[in-house]
Specification:
Layout (H helix, E strand, L loop, with lengths): L11 H22 L7 H22 L3 H6 L4 H26 L3 H21 L7 H21 L4 H18 L5 H25 L9 H8 L1 H16 L4 H7 L2 H12 L6 H33 L2
Helix pairs in contact: 1-10, 1-12, 2-4, 2-8, 2-10, 4-7, 4-8, 5-6, 5-7, 5-12, 5-13, 6-13, 11-13
Length: 305
């Protein structure tokens, strides 16, 4: 994602507050989803989809983006890509909820720490982007972290890798279509919305649903919609006022908060786990430093007379 055009940029202070708030909500969201442990991850994801769609619809109409939203229907290629991204984001949501509800928040954190470095690897291998020595070092350190997890912890971080992979693939596919983030997410929720609604009806009819268990359960399930949409909108606002390098650095707020929640919740965290995270954090430090240095050089070149 490129920096926002000057004509649409927000004040940096407001944009920064929005971006930090969005990442903070993402980072603290496991605390919310832990409150939904009374039901299965499948029902939570179905509820997220069903309640996100009408919220996004209202936002798009209020923002006068409805004509642009309808234009997507005339583009078969875009709709095809959005069909794939809707499946990817639904899978990512399910994995996230499953991890939270089975006390694997540290795996969630690990996955989202790995994600930006996986994006770098995909950019090089798929898009043919430049692969400088510092970014190569960053990816190598992350790979060493995964190898350490396998050899010393004795497990392949499958959940973390799948979380990173689904979100990486989602981000890549969304980059190849020129669709506003809000519009894209709306159509993604619509695409999986109808089968999700049917699934919820079947679930309730079979006695497996929890929406009608009580007002507390119903309210928590309804709130999955705002909890899905709010951080995305805050992220979009942040991206409209902050340089890409700053957004790249701020994105680690979310997995850092998730990591803190996992540790404070008493999830297993041995010295071997610490080495895994230390290697990946070192890779991220190199990645962010390279990103910020590139942004500094770019701005210095622009400022030259």
């Amino acid at each position: 994602m490129a920096d926002a055009p000057a004509s649409t940029r927000l004040d940096p202070a407001r944009a920064g507050a929005a971006a930090v708030s969005g990442y903070a909500i993402w980072g603290l969201s496991p605390l919310f989803y832990q409150l939904l442990a009374f039901t299965a991850p499948v029902e939570i994801v179905l509820q997220r989809v069903v309640w996100s769609a009408p919220i996004l619809l209202v936002i798009l109409i209020w923002a006068r983006r409805w004509p642009a939203t309808l234009q997507v229907l005339a583009d078969r290629k875009t709709l095809g890509v959005l069909f794939l991204t809707s499946l990817l984001i639904a899978a990512n949501w399910w994995l996230f909820i499953y991890a939270v509800n089975t006390a694997q928040v540290l795996s969630v954190s690990l996955g989202y720490f790995i994600n930006p470095l996986m994006n770098v690897a995909v950019g090089v291998l798929v898009l043919g982007e430049r692969f400088g020595r510092w970014r190569a070092l960053a990816v190598a350190l992350a790979a060493l972290g995964v190898v350490n997890q396998i050899l010393t912890v004795g497990e392949v971080p499958v959940l973390a890798l799948f979380l990173a992979a689904t979100f990486c693939a989602y981000g890549y596919l969304r980059k190849i279509i020129p669709v506003d983030g809000r519009i894209g997410l709306f159509w993604e929720t619509v695409i999986v919305g109808a089968p999700s609604l049917i699934g919820l009806i079947v679930l309730e009819a079979s006695g497996g649903g929890h929406f009608f268990t009580g007002p507390k359960e119903a309210l928590l399930l309804i709130l999955t919609g705002p909890m899905t949409v709010a951080p995305l909108l805050l992220f979009i606002l942040g991206a409209r006022g902050l340089p890409l390098a700053v957004m790249g650095a701020l994105q680690f707020i979310a997995p850092t908060l998730q990591f803190t929640i996992g540790v404070l919740s008493g999830e297993p965290f041995t010295a071997a786990h610490a080495v895994t995270f230390a290697l990946i954090w070192s890779g991220l430090a190199v990645f962010v430093a390279d990103l910020l240095w590139f942004e500094h050089k770019r701005r210095r070149e622009i400022a030259r007379p």
